[in-house]
């Protein structure tokens, strides 16, 4: 549990660092007591709250400002007297919204507007058609979408009417679903407006740890009126909660190097005046304390007794709270780990998509630009694989082709072995020599023919004898064919 608490501290630190680091260095901070109130002695004996004015059904006590009590249709507000003299600020609100019902109404509103709103207006106890910022802690689910209690910010230019029927869902700048009713400890909201960024951190009051904030929203490029008034209001409806504000702490924020120098160098008269103011307050306070003691002599003792001893039920309650906050810590730790896992997954996915697009982004040394390493891309891998497949197929085709050729050659060879006439011989030396041999033979024949014309030949065949021989042969052939036709005719007759 100790570990979890440390982790939580670290988380809050990181969030606050993250918020401030976006604008470079952390801003200079100055507590603005004239725009703040806090217990003890929040309200003075006459009921006034220094630097503030309240009205409607609001009641200020030493411990808190009850803006709207848990009665039907109550409205109340408290507004600061002076407009802000600084551009950027952070307001820490510590409040309690509590009631007996499982659901309550209507809610609480924080305001930063160009002019003060009313003390019994229609928007959570103050005026509609405001110019500036309204941050609403809306308890009651008017549009029945089961999304309340809800925290939202609406920036208005003085023309928009708040849409109660839809719980302002169409008008909101940003928001988050958070339960802020009936918490064991006071709930807190830290609203920061710095360099046109509006951030809301929320503490749900489940633990007593003042650092237990988580982020509700952060919006950039928000323009709010200069020299606005801070205010806070609340209202009840048919259902009613107590709406108590314990602390309203304003801090002005200055970008580094822009802290107003006159603010630091207070003139001697002003210093004296402020010192006198302080002494007056101190005196007033002592007087009030003395008066209270005189009026309630027994309360001192009782107060001491009550705070020193713990009743059975108080102890039980405290133990329950402790157990619950431990459970809460464990849950929070689990949530954080889950977030971490989701983050890693997203990172992995983005890396994979980067591989798909080509190149892996590798985080370089701190302070360096990330380096893009040109690695093989997915398409390239696919192309290489395709090429390989094509090559493989072609190789197979070539193999089958070679096989076919081989078998054909085999068959030709075997045919040749059986029938040597079909021998295929290359046009080599043998053929040429054969040709020359034939040419020589023809030449000698020609010579012989020439010589026959000149030399007398007793054994040579004369033309008349040759013709006679041909005629005899023709007659024999004719007779034979006649004989054969006759024979065939006889054979046909027999059949
Ligand atoms: Ca509502
Ligand atoms: Ca709703």
From TrEMBL:
Pfam family, one: Lectin_leg-like
Signal peptide: 1-24
Protein's cellular compartments: Endoplasmic reticulum-Golgi intermediate compartment membrane
Keyword presence, Nucleus: no
Domain L-type lectin-like, chain residue ranges per copy: 29-253
SUPFAM superfamilies: Concanavalin A-like lectins/glucanases
Key words of the record: Coiled coil, Disulfide bond, Lectin, Membrane, Signal, Transmembrane, Transmembrane helix
Coiled coil: 271-302
Record's keyword annotation contains Phosphoprotein: no
GO BP term (any one): endoplasmic reticulum to Golgi vesicle-mediated transport
Topology in the lipid bilayer: Single-pass type I membrane protein
TM annotation in the entry: 465-483
Source superkingdom: Eukaryota
GO molecular function: D-mannose binding
GO-annotated cellular components: COPII-coated ER to Golgi transport vesicle; endoplasmic reticulum membrane; endoplasmic reticulum-Golgi intermediate compartment membrane; Golgi membrane
Name of the protein described by the UniProt record: L-type lectin-like domain-containing protein
Source organism (scientific name): Temnothorax longispinosus
